[in-house]
Amino acid sequence: MESIPHPIPRTVEEVFNDFKGRRGGLIKALTTDVEKFYEKCDPEKENLCLYGMPNETWEVNLPVEEVPPELPEPALGINFARDGMQEKDWLSLVAVHSDSWLLSVAFYFGARFGFGKSERKRLFQMINDLPTVFEVVTGSVKQAKEATPYNNSSKLKPSVKMQPRQSESQPRGAKLSSKEEEESGEEEQEEEEEEQGATLCGACGDNYANDEFWICCDICERWFHGKCVKITPAKAEHIKQYKCPGCSSKRVRV
User: Fold this and answer.
1) For residues 6 and 14, is the Cβ–Cβ distance under 8 A?
2) pTM for this structure?
3) Cα-based distances in Å from 60 to 64, 67, 144, 254
4) SS3 call for 60
5) DSSP helix/strand/coil, 223
6) On the CB side of 207, how many CA atoms lie within 13 Å of its CA?
7) Digits of tens for pLDDT over the chain (254 positions)?
8) Which of 29, 59, 164, 205 is disulfide-compatible with 131, CB 3.0–4.6 A?
């Protein structure tokens, strides 16, 4: 049950930041904290909901009793389906409902504070630039392993660029004009940036950044920020085979 102790967002930017915080909390529950989340969703308990908080935390709790509620409520009774289906399918189902809830909360604030057409459109575009919770949890977000700069030993992958073979029709001594060289360099840089931009953290869903340490799971081959899975470069040096929290917690459910 959420009592909203956080400041109520009133602008497009504030609503988007609220959305990102809640989304971050839900992703943690369904990835890095999945073991704890699984245990809290006891089917023997009453109807439970998964709440994401603006400060990137989460909680499993009973729904609010007031009618109508202060905010739109998440899916009710997620715990009842836990043991009746494969864990992967159950987590995916919770993720889909979580995405729906996040949108409803964001546009509830928009309606409450009178967002116009242009503001609603801008808010949706900002939200749409982020991968959904479902995409992060299921791994359906494109993971460009080749573009990620760190391996499990925390060393930088060498960036090797092959020079194009010289055309047979071009004289050996011929050189590209400065304009052609500049255009070629720009194209290579754009391709590199596109590849790096396609690499997303399997925990938080954020894009790759040059100044951040990343580590790859040797089981599912998804990449994670070191800070999201609590792995430092020094610790990674001593890991022979890294398993992400999701792969570590996988086991046969009865």
Assistant:
1) no
2) 0.61
3) 12, 20, 33, 22
4) strand
5) strand
6) 10
7) 444 457 788 899 999 999 999 999 999 999 999 999 999 999 999 999 999 999 999 999 999 888 888 899 999 999 999 999 999 999 999 999 999 999 999 999 999 999 999 999 999 999 999 999 999 999 887 543 433 444 443 433 333 333 444 444 444 444 445 555 556 666 665 555 555 545 788 888 887 777 788 889 888 888 888 888 888 888 888 888 888 888 877 654 43
8) 205
- 205 touches 52 (CB < 8 A): no
Residue 115 and residue 118: Cα distance in Å, rounded?
A: 8
Instruction: Say how many C-beta atoms besides its own lie within 10 A of residue 108's C-beta.
Output: 14
A 10 A CB-CB count for 34 gives 19
Which residues 6+ apart lie within 8 Å of 110 measured at CB? 12, 15, 119, 120, 123
Q: Which residues of 45-64 are buried (b: 16+ CB within 10 A; e: fewer)?
A: eeebbbbbbbebebbbeebe
d(CA 158, CA 155): 9
Do the beta carbons of residue 80 and residue 43 sit within 8 Å? yes
Please state the φ and ψ torsions of residue 89, each to the nearest 5 degrees: -70, -35
Q: What's the rounded Cα separation, in Å, for the pair 15 and 99?
A: 15
The Cα 233–Cα 220 span in angstroms is 20
**Would you say 29 and 50 are in contact if contact means Cβ atoms under 8 Å apart?**
yes
Whether omega for the bond prior to residue 68 falls within 30 degrees of 0, making it cis, is yes
Torsion, Cα of 177, 179, 185, 187 (10° steps): -120
Question: What is the H or E stretch that residue 59 is in?
Answer: strand 58-61
Tokens of 91: 């987590």
